[in-house]
Structure formats: C-alpha cells, structure tokens
Amino acid sequence: MLDWSAIDTVLLDMDGTLLDLHFDNHFWLEHLPKRWSELTGIAETEARATLKAEYAVLHGKIEWYCLDYWTRRLNLPITALKREISDKIAMRADTPAFLQALQQSGRRIVLVTNAHPDSLSLKIELTPLATYIDELISTHEFGVTKEQQELWQQLQARLGFDAKRTLFVDDSLPILHAAQQFGIGHLLAVANPDSQQPVRQIDEFPAIIDYRDLVADILAAPVIAN
Hints:
Blueprint: E1 9-12, H1 22-40, H2 44-58, H3 62-65, H4 67-74, H5 78-84, H6 95-105, E2 108-113, H7 117-126, E3 135-138, H8 149-159, E4 166-170, H9 173-182, E5 186-190, E6 207-208, H10 215-220
Parallel strand pairs: 1-2, 1-4, 2-3, 4-5, 5-6
Helix pairs in contact: 1-2
GO molecular function: 5'-nucleotidase activity
Keywords: Hydrolase
EC number: 3.1.3.5
C-alpha cells in the first residue's frame, strides 16, 4: 500500500485518524444541542436545526473548528461542555502499535490538526498521544485550515519537509485532496474514523481500517537516521 523506503516525514490528523471520532460527532451533533437547549430554554429541535444549518455554512472554515467562535456565538462554555463527556475521548485501538512502529523507524512524526488549541490540549491531557509524536500543531496557529493551500505552504515553510517524501494521513477526503494538490507524495485515508459508524467505501485514495496491518512493513523498511 505504501513505499515506506520513500517516506521520511509522517503528518497525522488527530480526530478520526488517531482518536475515535465518536467523541466529536457525539459532542457537536448530540451533546451541544441538548445542553444549549437546557441552558437557554431554546427548544432542542430548534437548537439542532440551527446548529446543523450553521455547521453546513462554516464547514471547512477556521470558524467551524474554533471553540472561541462557538463560545461567543452560543454564549456557552464550550470547553467545559466538552469536559462533561470527556470519558468518550479515546485513541483508536490500532493507534498505539502504529505510532510505536513509526517511532522505532526513526521517521519524523507530526500531528497537524484543525482542532482548536483548547481541544488539542484536552485530548493531549486525556490520552497518551504526546508520548509518540515529535511535534503537535493546531492550524489555528496559521489562521487557515488544512482545506486551504495557504496552510500547506506555511506548514512546509515551518517544518521544512520534502513533500514528495512525506506521508499524510487523514479521515477527511476534501483535506486529502488539498494535500494532494499541494504535492504531498503519499496519502492515506481512514475508512472507519467513528467506531460507532459503518466503514466507508473510499476509492480516491489508499484507505486503512486497521493500522496494525502496516506495522510489519514500517519495521521492515530502512530506519531513518535523525
């Protein structure tokens, strides 16, 4: 599936790629509408409909991922509301073995997420992700998202990676297309980002269901000298 001898840098999404997307889907689609209704008196059906419409307008933009934006828009403590269901934050079962193999191989491992820094901090606090990863980056640092070419330009300027020798893994097909447009040489989609949802059929990119299927090939490839 992947030529590991041609990969030096691995860029990894977080939600749906390393972590189970069930937490995020449950928060934005179920918990937030319910709590907005309870805290303000808005009918829950109205809250759901309003949020669904706003999500559609903002999807892919920095505001969609921005907890500060939603805190102002709804006048709610979004990070605190996330903590109410933080027991749902979990790594994918296949993530540790994958990250351990990447570490052993000597490849540079960078997390690149559209998540707001407060959301990133919460998940780093509650999972062991940081122990496996060389650098943690929220695209909020750049003010643009992975859907936009400006992000990839700034990310390359910061990290200095060779695009042709870089692997990028994400569960979002629009984001994978943006990385492909920029010239990232190796792309991998996640077919099962949410453990509570069916596996998706993905034809545009190589797709993975279980990272453990990659471990032997990672470890068999030449070790990258740091």
